[in-house]
Amino acid sequence: MNLEFERVIAAPPERVFDAFTSPGGQREFYGQDDPGWIVESRCDLRVGGVWSIAFGPSRGELYHHRHVFEAIERPRRIVMTTTETRLDGSSFQTALEFEFAPRDGGTLMTMRQSGFESEALRDEHTRGLPNAFARLARSIERS
Question: C-alpha distances in angstroms, 5 versus 42, 81, 108, 113?
């Protein structure tokens, strides 16, 4: 099962790429507007490096994503293998790609994720994407 989501962001690809890969951009992408929402991010931005994210509504309810960078082509593309660990301790792996393409004076940022075990799991991942992309776009527009 595959998932694709995209959004045009009003900034050039270099700026969007750099914001997304920065600590602030990573926190925005996984953040929520809910008070107390936790995002902890550590990133070694290099091929073979690991980007670890823990996020959730409280210390006792943190999801963990471990991304391993397979390709980094600034400012055009990032490819990762992702292991997601859920609240119940189960985990699964997907392939994840982000693409940053010039579009109408801004950047078309596209996320493609493949390898979901079921439609339900894939669909669950679509719920947070509009907010993730919107928060990243707002942070870029503020800077």
Answer: 24, 17, 10, 9
